[in-house]
Amino acid sequence: MTKRILLAKTALDGHWRGLSMVARALRDAGFEVIMAGMAVDTEIARAAVDEDVDLLGLNVGGRVEIVERIVSAVREQRPGLPVFAGGAIAPWMKKELERQGIEVYPPGSALGEIVAAAQRLTAAG
Amino acid sequence: MSDHAARERKTVSGIDIAPLYTADDVPPAIREALAAGPGRAPYLRGTYPGMYRERPWRIFQLSGFGNPEDECERIKFLLSQGEHGFIMEHDRNTADHLYDVDHPSVVARREDVGLTGAVIMGVRDFETVLDGIPIDKTYSHAGGGVVQHAPFALSCFWTVAKRRGLDLGKLAGTGQSDYFLTYLGCVTKQQIPTRPGLRFNADIIEFCSAHLPRWVPVSIAAYNGADTGLNAYEELGALFANAVEYLDEVRRRGRVPMEVAARGVGGISFRVSMDLFEEIAKLRISRKMWADLLENRYGVTDPRAAQLRIHVVTAGSSMTYAQPLNNIVRGTLMGLAAVLGGVQSLGVSGYDEALSIPSEHAHQMSVRIQQILQHETNLTAVVDPLGGSFYLEKLGAELEERGWAFFEEIQQRGGFLATLDSGWLHEVAHRNQFELMQAREAGGRIVVGETDFTTDISPHEVDGFKGSSDAWERAMQRLEQLRRQRNGKATARALRDLEQTCRGMDNLMPAMMAAVDADATLGEIGAVFREVYGDWATPIRA
């Protein structure tokens, strides 16, 4: 069955290029991509349930607290849903997110690497 | 070594590169343009006759974050370090969207507020940012990169100047109101549609021509198209397609002489990235393309209009996350290319660009790179030192031809605004970028520290800039205080007048100036725009 991935932007920051590249690569690899865009925690959590997704991808353009708020809202509805993130995530913040079980792919990560991560993270379900 | 020798040689835009160029490669039209010399149409060899011998390029960096006081301090720091002007950065959450800090979309992301620029909600905040900064003596960029934000930013800045008793007619600086940023590179959640945006920009051009002759009213930042994925000749073609939308509108209205309008639109910015010769060729040929366009389309030959003034920002996307100190070298190389292309002003991206907004040290480094180029290299001694290079001139001719072809393609698709509305330009940019990334992953393009040579023994941890964390709370307090202290009736009246003006045909700017003078806030002005114009239907499918 086709695996479904929800992609969202955590910030009100309009840099779409990175997310667009990731979405293309995932679609080319056979995933169904659902785009939540610039959404807030409750909207993302609702979409994760309604769309019955297998993975959540967050484009982070801001502070760690926003990511934490989103992930906690999502995990309340969908415990165990894997989450990965990309964007301008400074090294200290990357460590912080990884501690919370979020895989991080900072700028410069290969699309192939991101697709492989999506395949691995959705394989269990 | 066999791999190296067998490599396909193309520019990053895909133009074939021969192993050697000779005099025969330089086309006759380029020879003619070379013969005209610098400071004379079509300006291939330089905008001005003496170039950097007479005046070095302007060191011009983006700066700002946090609270208005933080931004004020950073601007003063940069000016004290030798910067020649400043570019105000506004918090994207609030400014780009015209939201006050109590808007639900902002409250849900309150920790982000202030991260990308200071929170500036009204003329009082502008007064705080500009406190102690001699805006009559520096060259200023008030912000307003995003189209719907520009009338607000400009009105606030000019109101501060008026309150200081300064003569607006003598104020030097630049607006931006950039379509590439707003509708292509940095698409917000809510934005006025492209047509009313065009009205705003034409109003600003007319207002400046009447009241602020030394102010650049709008500035097309093709940079934002390029960093979204447009290649060098697409950047050229799209830039001019954008310029003719503005100029055709001003001509249709018939209130400003075309040479004045063209001068107003002729201060632009490009991106320079790592394919150095292609970028130098692009900058040089852009001047010829601009002069040709003005003469052929509008019959304008006045040098003050035909001299394209170029600001360059080095490509943020060329700055790597891995081994960030390498980016100091990249910034230097891209800055060098900009200078060899003959730019009038330059901003070098921070070496921590991929991690965060620039730290104070990264900012200082961007200024220092430019100072080294200005003072230690003898680069400023000769006008257009690479002029006549067989390779460069041939490449310029090729970019010119392809640039005009792209311009024509945009015209055939209904013009620049239509290609933004339809999402065609986004698709072109994103497809290019995707192909570049695929080529990189197939081993066709080495990025040092990222794809190869990944061992790093640097003792320097670069951790990104964290900024101030109280920007949202303090802005909430200011907002509450403002609503309590201001003359609410006067504010409401000014906002009603603004709405009337938006619905009518008069120039928007006098009503904007009156609204900010009456302490109307960013969000209140945004509410008026949203009520009158509605939202742009974003074509981004990501």
In short, what is this structure?
The complex is a heterodimer of chains A (about 120) and B (about 550). With about 120 residues, chain A is an alpha/beta fold.
Classify the helix fraction of chain B into a percent range.
40-55%
Looking at this structure, what is the CATH superfamily of chain B?
A: Methylmalonyl-CoA mutase
Number of domains of chain B: 1
User: Can you write the helix and strand succession of chain A as a string?
Assistant: EHEHEHEHEH
Largest sheet of chain A: 5 strands, parallel
Number of helices of chain A: 5
**Class of chain A in CATH?**
Alpha Beta
Mean residue pLDDT of chain B: 95
Distance from N terminus to C terminus of chain B (CA atoms, Å) equals 40 Å
What is the helix tally of chain B?
23
Task: Describe the structure using short key phrases.
heterodimer; A: 125 residues; alpha/beta; Rossmann fold; five-stranded parallel β-sheet; globular; B: 542 residues; mainly alpha; TIM Barrel; eight-stranded parallel β-sheet; 23 helices; 8 strands; 6% strand
Describe the SSE topology.
The complex is a heterodimer of chains A (125) and B (542).
Chain A: E1 4-9, H1 17-28, E2 32-38, H2 41-50, E3 55-60, H3 64-77, E4 83-87, H4 91-99, E5 103-105, H5 111-123
Helix pairs in contact in A: 1-5, 2-3
Chain B: H1 2-6, H2 28-36, E1 58-63, H3 68-80, E2 85-88, H4 92-96, H5 104-107, H6 123-129, E3 139-141, H7 150-163, E4 173-174, H8 179-185, H9 194-211, E5 215-216, H10 222-226, H11 232-253, H12 258-265, E6 267-272, H13 276-298, H14 303-306, E7 309-314, H15 326-340, E8 345-347, H16 360-375, H17 390-412, H18 416-421, H19 424-441, H20 471-485, H21 488-503, H22 508-517, H23 522-533
Parallel strand pairs in B: 1-2, 1-8, 2-3, 3-4, 4-5, 6-7, 7-8
